[in-house]
Amino acid sequence: MVKSIQDTYTLSNGIKIPVMGLGVYKNVDETELETAVSSALEFGYRHIDTAKVYKNEKGVGRAIKNSRVPREEIFVTTKVWNNDQGYENTLKAFDRSLKELDMDYIDLYLIHWPMPGTYVDTWKALEKLYKDGKVRAIGVSNFNPHHLQDIFNECEIKPMLNQVEYHPHLAQPELKAFCKEHDILLEAWSPLKRGRMFDEPVLVKLSEKYGKTPAQIILRWDVETGVSTIPKSVSADRVRENGDIFDFELTSEEVEAITALDRHERVGKDPDKVTLDTFAD
Questions:
Q1: Coil, helix or strand for 88?
Q2: Are 204 and 261 in contact (CB under 8 A)?
Q3: Do residues 67 and 37 touch, judged by C-beta distance below 8 A?
Q4: What whole-number distance in Å separates Cα of residue 188 and Cα of residue 218?
Q5: Has residue 281 got a pLDDT over 60?
Q6: In a domain, 99, yes or no
Q7: In a domain, 1, yes or no
Q8: Please, which residues bridge with residue 47 across strands?
Q9: How many domains does the chain have?
Q10: In this structure, what CATH number is given to the domain that contains residue 84?
C-alpha cells in the first residue's frame, strides 16, 4: 500500500520519483504560483512539474529556493516545447529552462509532444543531456506506442517515463501495458479530467464510503494502478486536499469498477494530431 505523499516509484535507471506531484499548468500569477508551490512543499509534496510553455519556470525556481526544503529533496520536472524541438534547438532550450529555474540540474526532462519529423532527434539531445549529467532522468509526454517504438528503433536509451492524459474516462490500457512491458512509468496529467466526472455514481458512492471527495477517490485510483499523478491547483486548500489520499485504500474490486468507467474520452489533444499550437497540461 502506498502510505505517504513522499512514497516513490523507481524509474528504470534507479532514480526515485514521488508518487504524487504538483502540476503548475496555467499558474502564471507569481503570488498564486508561490502560494501553491509553498503550500505543496509544506504539506509534504516533493515533486513539482512545470514546462517551458507554461511560462512559470522562473517562478517555480524562486518558490523552491524560498522554501525551507533543500533542493536535493525536491524532484523537478520541465519539458521542451514543440517549436524548440530538434537536436541543437533542444540543447539550447534546456539551457534556457535551467537558467529560468536557476538550478544546477533538472531531475526529469521531457519531450512535451511527439512533433512529427523532429521527436527522434529531440530524444537524441535528451540522451546527451542525460549522459552529460545535466538531468537525472529523461522521458516523454503524450507519446503513443508507435512514437515510443520510433525511439527504440533509433536511440540508445529508452524513455524512463511517459506523461499522458490519464483518468477514469481515459484509462489507456493498451498504452499502459506497452509502457509496463518496456519499464516506462506512466504519469497522469489532467488526472481529474478538469472536474468533469465527479458525478459518476461509482465515484460518488466511494466518496460517501470513505469520507473523501470524488477527486481524492480518483487520485487514490491513480496510485493504486501504479501511476504517478500531478494534479494542478492554485488553491492552497485544494493542494492539501489533493494530497490527502494516503489514509485509505481502495479494494481491487473498487479499482476495477473505476477503471471500467473508461470511455476513451480526452479533454486534451490527440497525440497523433499534434501541431506547433498543440497544448496540454
A1: helix
A2: no
A3: yes
A4: 11
A5: no
A6: yes
A7: no
A8: 75
A9: 1
A10: 3.20.20.100
Residue 184 lies in a domain: yes
Encode pLDDT of 209-234 as tens digits. 999 999 999 999 999 999 999 999 88
Question: pLDDT class for 280, splitting at 50, 70, 90?
Answer: very low
Handedness of CA 97, 98, 99, 102 (dihedral sign): positive
pLDDT, mean over the chain: 95
Instruction: Write down the pLDDT at residue 144.
Output: 98
Residues 31-45, buried b or exposed e (16+ Cβ, 10 A)?
ebbbbbbbbbbebbb
Residue 147 annotated in ligand binding: no
Task: Provide the domain limits for residue 23.
Answer: 8-261
Q: Is residue 273 part of a domain?
A: no
Q: Could you list the active site residues?
A: 54
Query: In the structure grid, which three cell numbers stand for residue 223, read together?
Result: 496510485
Dihedral angle of Cα 119, 121, 127, 128, to the nearest 10 degrees: -140
pLDDT above 90 (res 203): yes
Q: What is the structure's pLDDT at 31?
A: 87
Asked if the model's pLDDT at residue 275 lies above 90, the reply is no
DSSP output for 97-156: HHHHHT-S-EEEEEESS--TTTHHHHHHHHHHHHHTTSEEEEEEES--HHHHHHHHHH-S
Q: What is the pTM of this model?
A: 0.96
Amino acid at 141: S
Rounded-to-integer distance, Cα 190 and Cα 121, Å: 28
For the segment 242-270, the average pLDDT, to the nearest whole number, is 97
Q: Work out the end-to-end distance of the chain between its first and last CA atoms, rounded to an integer number of angstroms.
A: 28
Alpha carbon 205 to its chain centroid, in Å, reads 28
For 44, which DSSP code? T
